[in-house]
Amino acid sequence: KYGLAAINRMLDICGKDQALGYDIGCSSCKTVATSSIAAKAHANNLVIAVNAFHGYAHNRQCQLANHPLYLNGFGIEDLEMCERIFSSSNSVALLIRHASYFHWVQFLDLHFDQWDKDKYLELSVFFLSESLSTINDFTLLLDDFKIRKSLTDEDFVQWKHKESEFLANLSHESPADVFAVTYVEEMEKLQFLE
Question: For residue 67, which of 14, 51, 63, 160 is within the disulfide window of CB 3.0 to 4.6 Å?
Fold first, then answer.
C-alpha cells in the first residue's frame, strides 16, 4: 500500500514521463498494473525499472525488460543514488548515536547540506570534462564499429528483441533435448552401477 501511495503522489507532483527505480521493479510494475492507479500510471507513461546493481540478480528476461541499460531515456543512470546517500549518512551515525534530538537533526542537516554542495560541484566538473569527452570518444568508436561490422542503430534494438523472443520460446524444452538429457542421465546411472 505504501509503495502505491508513494507512486501515486509522485505522479501527482511530477506529472508525465517519469521513471522509478526499485530493487524489485519487475514485481512492482505488475503490482501497479493491477492496482487502482494503473490507468493513471499508464496515462502518465510511468516506467518502473530495476536498479542496475539489483538487476543483475534477476533472470535475463527480466533484465531485458526492466534493466536501465536496455530502457530508453536512462542514459548512464544506474538508479542507485539512494543507496549512495544512505551509505554516506552512515558516517554520521557515530557522531549522533548519543546526541540529543536537536543535535541529531543538526548533524544530519549539516551532513546533507555538505553532500549537496559536494555533489553539485562534482556534477559540474563531470559535465564539463568527463561526460563530453566520453560522448565524443565513444561515439567515434561506436561509429567505427558500426561501419566495420555493417551495422545500424536498429540492429542493436533488434538484438534485444530477438534475445527476448528466444528466451520466451525457450520456456518449453524441445522433446529432442529432453530425450538427450534423459539418455545421458540413464547412462550415468548405468556407469555408476557397474
Answer: 63
Q: Is the pTM of this model over 0.90?
A: no
Q: Which of 164, 170, 181 is nearest to 71 (CA)?
A: 164
Backbone angles phi, psi at 20, to 5 degrees: -135, 130
**CA-to-CA distance for 69 and 133, rounded, in angstroms?**
20
Q: What is the pLDDT of residues 56-93, one digit of tens each?
A: 778 888 888 888 888 888 887 888 888 888 888 888 88
- To the nearest 10°, the Cα dihedral for 86, 87, 88, 92? 80
β-pair partners for 22: 50
In which band, very low, low, confident or very high, does the pLDDT at 41 lie, cut at 50, 70 and 90? very high
Rounding to the nearest 10 degrees, give the CA dihedral for residues 110, 111, 113, 118: 140
Strand partners, 50: 22
Sign of the dihedral defined by the CA atoms of residues 125, 131, 137, 140, in that order: negative
Query: Can you spell out the DSSP letters for 17-82?
Result: S-EEEETTHHHHHHHHHTSTTHHHHHHTT-EEEE-HHHHTTS-HHHHHHH-GGGSTT-TT--S-HH
Side-chain-side CA neighbours of residue 166 (13 Å) = 8
Look-up: residue for cell 566538473? 125
